[in-house]
Amino acid sequence: WESWRAMLAVVLALLSGERQQICLQQGSHPGHAGAGDSLNISCRSNRAYMFWYQQPPRNGLKLIVSSSTWSSNSYEHGYSEAKFEITRESSFYALMTIKNLTSKDEATYFCAASDRTV
C-alpha cells in the first residue's frame, strides 16, 4: 500500500506542476465484509481536493467521486451518494462508506489528493 500511495502522490504532484510535498494517508478497518454490509475507508490529506477511485480486478482505475472542503461532492456517471457516501469530517479527513456491498463492489479503492481538480 505504501508504494501505491507514494505513486499516486507523485503522479498528482506531476500533473498539477507542484513542487510541494503532498501528504496522504489511507486506511480501512481490517477484516472481511459480507454481502449487504457497509465498509468504511478513511483518507487524510493536507490538500483541499480528495478523489476516490475504484479499481476492479484486472481493470483500470475509475474515478468515483471528487470532494472538496467547500463544495458538494461531484460523482462520476454510474456512481451515486446512495452507494458511495463521502463524509468530510474536517479539511484534512474524509470517510467513504460503501453501502450494501455486493460482489460487483469487489475492487481496490484508492484516495488521492490535490490542491485543485485534475
From TrEMBL:
Protein name (Swiss-Prot/TrEMBL): Ig-like domain-containing protein
The alphabetical list of record keywords is: Immunity, Signal
Q: Which Gene3D superfamilies match?
A: Immunoglobulins
Domain annotation Ig-like: ranges = 36-118
Question: A GO CC term?
Answer: plasma membrane
Superkingdom assignment:
Eukaryota
- Report whether Mitochondrion shows up as a keyword of the record: no
Signal peptide from the UniProt entry: 1-17
Set out the biological process GO terms recorded for this chain's protein: cell surface receptor signaling pathway; immune system process
InterPro entries from the entry?
A: Ig-like_dom, Ig-like_dom_sf, Ig-like_fold, Ig_sub, Ig_V-set, TCR_beta_variable
- What species does this protein belong to? Cyanistes caeruleus
